[in-house]
Amino acid sequence: MISDRKLKLGLVGENIGTSLSPVLHRILADEKKVDIEYGLYELNGDLESFIKQFKKSLFTGINITKPYKKSFLEFVDKVEINAKKIGAINVLSLNDEKINAYNTDYWGAYQALKQNDCKVEGRTVIVLGAGGAARSAVYMAGKYGASKVVIVNRTYEKAEKIISDMKKYFTNSFYCLTYDEFRKTDEYKDFILINATSVGMKGFLEESILDDEIISGASFFMDMVYSPNISKSREFASGKGINNINGLDMLFFQGLRAFEIWTGLTFDAIEIERSYNTFVNFVDGESKVYN
Ligand code: NAP
């Protein structure tokens, strides 16, 4: 699949100026000695024009971020099965003038937990939020064998809709609760807690989504937020002695899988480790910028 020409890649979304995706894909391209250009494309809702441009300019692939993970679905030719079930896409690939769509976020979330020795199989997974990222996390928990999956969201109907979609594909136990209901129950113990809300993001609502009642019973916390590196929610979790990670590992792994889709190349364990370390070291070095 890989050609000799420079691969044209990029990210579409809103407020993407400080995205780490260009750095990540530069690192992956250097590892595989592939020539790429990776651009940032701020969209103002005109998806159709972008799709025309995508085809005309012979892009190889595009990452999609907020708020377009669902809306691009109607413009693509084929949706890969996991993405179809999740109902959200974060990767487009152009092959023979046809646009294929994928979701690599769910796999990124799973790999991030695995990388940090957090096993999903047989566990209870609690997901805060019911947007695109939450859909990927809930699907991940269903696919990788969580025994119970609970969505806690401000807008109850959105959580209910995810659950009715997931029940078509999985036999795990799915539940949804409001924040107040979740605070009051002590039914869940030793669970993996995932923040898939936008709370904590720099420039959005730089607060903690966690409080004493929400964290009570958690044994691992993954905040999908990675900017700032250490969010208020992570500070809160650390203060309670709960092992926690940010969204950087998820970002790395979703990007790795996207790069493999675009190029047809696969990374072996040594290449993954080297690229991962380069990426994490870069972000550590830049932490003053990202915090
Ligand atoms: P989204 O579709 O806009 O969903 C945002 C969710 O956050 C909604 O469910 C919303 O609740 C909830 N929310 C917003 N403000 C809230 C508040 N004040 N209190 C409680 N809940 C609140 O966004 P998304 O695409 O799912 O992204 C969510 C987060 O995940 C973002 O921070 C994004 O950067 C991150 N993310 C990280 C990665 C990664 O690789 N690390 C990948 C994907 C996404 P309602 O439903 O009630 O409106």
Task: Provide an overview of this structure.
- Strand 5 and strand 6 form a beta hairpin.
- It is built from twelve helices and twelve strands.
- The mean pLDDT is 94.
- The longest helix is centred in the C-terminal third of the chain and has 17 residues.
- The protein has 291 residues and is of the alpha/beta class.
- Helix 10 crosses helix 11.
- Bound molecules: NADP nicotinamide-adenine-dinucleotide phosphate.
- NADP nicotinamide-adenine-dinucleotide phosphate binds next to helix 4, helix 5 and helix 10.
SSE layout and pairing:
Layout: E1 7-13, H1 21-32, E2 36-42, H2 47-56, E3 61-64, E4 78-79, H3 81-86, E5 91-95, E6 98-102, H4 105-115, E7 124-128, H5 132-143, E8 148-152, H6 156-166, E9 173-177, H7 179-184, E10 191-195, H8 212-215, E11 218-223, H9 232-239, E12 243-245, H10 248-263, H11 269-285, H12 287-290
Parallel strand pairs: 1-2, 1-3, 4-6, 7-8, 7-10, 8-9, 10-11, 11-12
Antiparallel strand pairs: 3-5, 5-6
NADP nicotinamide-adenine-dinucleotide phosphate binds at residues 66, 69, 105, 108, 129-134, 153-155, 158, 196-199, 201, 205, 224-226, 247, 250-251, 254.
